[in-house]
Amino acid sequence: MADPRPAPDRPAPSTRKAIFISYRSADGKKDAARLAEDLRDIFGAPQVFFDKHDLQGGSSWREQIGQALGQQPVVLLIISEQFFGARNEQGLRIDQPDDPVRMEVIDSMRVGARLLPLLCEGVRMPSSASLPVELRSVPEAHALKLRTEDWRADLLKLADRLVALGIAPLDDDWREQFTAPPGTARRGRLRQSLGVAAVLLALGGGGAYWFHTEQLQREAAAVEARRLRALQHVSDGLAADHGKDVNLELARRKYLAAIEELPDYGPAHYYLAQVYATQTLRADALGHYRTALAHPNGLDRAQLADARSRLAALESSAAEPEAVGAPPIVGSAAPTRPSTGQVQPAPVPRPAPMPAPVVRPPPAVVAAAPDASDKALLDAPVAGAAPPPRATSLPRLPMTDPQPTQAVDLVHRVAPLPDRQRQAQAQAAALFADDPAERLAAATTLGVEQNLAADVLPLALARALAAAQRQADKDGDRAGLIATWRLVGQASPLSLQAERAAIEALFQATGPLDTMIKLQGGVIGAMEKLRAAGDLRPRVYIQIASNAQRAFATRLASRLERAGYDVPGIENIGAKAPRQTDLRAQGASNPGLARWMRKVITETTGAPVALRVLQRAQPAIDTYEIWLGQDLCVAADAQPSDCR
Length: 644
What we know:
- By secondary structure, the protein is of the alpha/beta class.
- Helix content is 49%, strand content 8%.
- α16 crosses α17 (436-448).
- The protein starts with 18 loop residues before the first strand and ends in a 17-residue tail after the last strand.
């Protein structure tokens, strides 16, 4: 006997306007029309409002749009170059009260519609301060991309977002329409119709098939619910680490929650890897970049290229030799984190913190100046930022113990070369950029390349001080302030000593600002680290290949000690020595000191010296390693005077 219950049907497609497309006709109409066509295929024509199709003859466009907006749809803003940038003889059109685009956006906000900006190829979101007061909340909305080259991937992300917002697609297999090979991309509804017909025929055969179908539908509904929850978690995570008050811990929890729902969801792993890289958790970042690349669905070309680049850098550092004086931690438990449902790669062993050295003031030595071109770049003010004030003009902070700064003033440092300085300036500027993605990319880079972060620190401090003096009136200023304080918290003791005056000035300027900046930037912890830095001396380990080099190494150690370095001793490592002399800086150790040592060793040996950075090392003090090459003081053509 046939089951008397009716076959389950999908809810009838909505006839209300759920998606509204707003664009500037001058350069956004083509993309808007293409997007409307694709969204109609996914969600049905009745749910998509595009004025070319929906404005009725004889009625005003504003009346029709007002009726559509009264349904509280999602409003897609096609942000082309002209959307905010169009001009006429009166100036920017967006500033003029009768501008149609401005009126559409304001009407949307008045009825409580959700705004979803879509950035066209090569377009950046303007800053809030550059827009009319009524539109200043638009840049705060999380924007998606809409690029011609990656149209399909961007469309899928947009459709996922719309589904997450409660807009029902026409078909369950809508995604297949846009992932199938050319020629089959629009066959989804035909396949579904045939499937429904088959189900209706099968229902006449008894209740067993009905039960099986109902079970499959329940399972599919559960999978869809998990997918929607994962998408929402990722959206919340992006709001946390792309917002004006960057909250990396909240973002981390949201991305982990998304991975709990969908363990193979590539974007969640990609964004989580960025968070870990920003926090200098290299092994964690490496594992999640690998997982993201193993499950790339949902990542666009730029994200895939970025993940490959970051992974290559992290894998390169994972193959580094262990730092001298800091053996791997043995028998210690790894920090626990919420399970991600994935088997993560074995963490890269981290060096144990080195014990703090005995503090003793070094003999007075005149600091070596950098080359003229380098010094000019180092001392040049950053465009748009006030230079840090001199220490003599600042009151001593109550939480900072009076500490003489003689030690760091007497240690030689050499400024970066022009190319390196330009790179540092670009990264410092990116930390304060209007584009949240640009800010996050810079923070990720500086988390992976700690030695670059040390060169960026003085430039970021100058920008941060200028931003604080402006009361951090832009989102980029707030995010840049938070990022700068995090750089301070990650800096080495010698970098902190070198920038003490600027850090104390920034602390005073940050005081009147709201608490969120101080909490997310870790201001109190950073100032405690500055206080603890005191007059710690940089440490240098010297490794020799044979006793023939001992006289040279002894003279070099004496010169370094006179310059304020701590040299624990000289170790003969024999055949482990490299062929050519090698200088290694551990982790975030101040690169200016490393450049000075390289200059000294090059002048003394008469041969170029390679400078390497051991990115995985995390020394408690600035630590360097000098590995003398095997031929030095042995080969006939490698006999500098200090060998005798």
